[in-house]
Specification:
Length: about 300
């Protein structure tokens, strides 16, 4: 049975780190040991049908609960591909999943590498109420992603480190918020107290080891049929769908359109993923509350001590 111990606030464990650092495997093992459920903080795995390209943990639906190796795994595979999904929506759904997990007597583990998702939940981020600016969106829509990324970095360098530079929709929204709120989205402070007493554990790996893991993961994605996955998606959805603009899907679509070879697409996916991992670490390193570990036993000891 999960206990809050002497704390007056419910306890939350966040497991963060760059892509391919082993967050999912560690979280599942810890969840089994500490009677926990997992709440995903991954902005791509939340979409249905994005499976191989997002390294989504393979599981099955049991009623209305997605489970992985018998562990409830919330906020994955639950949003339609053509559905717009905002940070504010994620925050509210994550809070519901965490609170329901606690009511069931389980420990909630918030697991993922999307920095703004983690920040929104842990620090009770007040999402700026910036209405869509259709004129601004129209002006920005035709610009390449590297130009959008530069605009965002000039306006809001903190958020620029957290937003996927290959995702034009998120870049445009971040620019829209930075201009509309007249201040940095990512630098906004929480209003009032945090909802949870949170232990944040960050997984860090030597650079060479992480790069090797990324390369191996991309090769495995191709072997598992990633190209076929993208082909089947393009038969049902328009290729400009924002959910298909992430790393991996963009490059494979370019290959299927005949713009680049498969070999080049694979090289680009590996390069862009390594770059994304570096940006994730830049984002997370700013949070001095994160307890960085390299070995699983270190994480286990931190969780055991925190839960008491």
């Amino acid at each position: 049975m999960f206990s809050m111990g002497k704390s007056r606030s419910p306890k939350l464990i966040a497991i963060v780190g760059p892509t391919a650092s082993g967050k999912t495997a560690w979280a599942l093992e810890l969840a089994r040991e500490f009677n926990a459920e997992i709440i995903s903080a991954d902005s791509r795995q939340i979409y249905r049908e994005l499976t191989i390209g997002t390294s989504k943990p393979r599981g099955a639906w049991q009623g209305d609960t997605y489970t992985v190796s018998g562990i409830p795994y919330h906020l994955v595979d639950c949003v339609d591909l053509n559905e717009e999904f905002t940070l504010a929506q994620y925050q509210q759904r994550a809070w519901v999943a965490i609170d329901e997990t606690i009511r069931r007597g389980k420990a909630p583990f918030l697991v993922g590498g999307t920095g703004l998702y983690i920040y929104a939940v842990v620090d009770n981020l007040v999402i700026p109420a910036v209405e869509p600016n259709q004129q601004l969106r129209a002006r920005l829509a035709g610009k390449p992603t590297d130009e959008l990324a530069k605009i965002l970095r000039d306006l809001d360098p903190v958020s620029a480190d957290a937003v996927d530079p290959a995702n034009p929709r998120r870049l445009i929204r971040a620019i829209e918020v930075a201009l509309g709120a007249n201040r940095s989205f990512a630098a906004l402070k929480a209003r009032g107290s945090a909802r949870y007493e949170t232990l944040q554990i960050g997984i860090t790996k030597p650079k060479e080891e992480l790069c090797e893991t990324i390369e191996r993961r991309v090769d495995e994605m191709i072997e598992e049929g990633f190209v076929n996955e993208v082909e089947s998606l393009l038969e049902k959805y328009r290729r400009t769908l924002p959910a298909l603009s992430g790393i991996g899907y963009t490059e494979i679509i370019q290959h299927l359109d005949g713009a680049i070879t498969l070999e080049k697409a694979i090289r680009l996916i590996k390069t862009h993923t390594r770059q994304y991992a570096r940006r994730q670490m830049t984002w997370f390193r700013r949070d001095k509350r994160i307890r960085w570990v390299q070995h699983f036993d270190e994480a286990r000891a931190l969780v055991a001590d925190f839960l008491g």
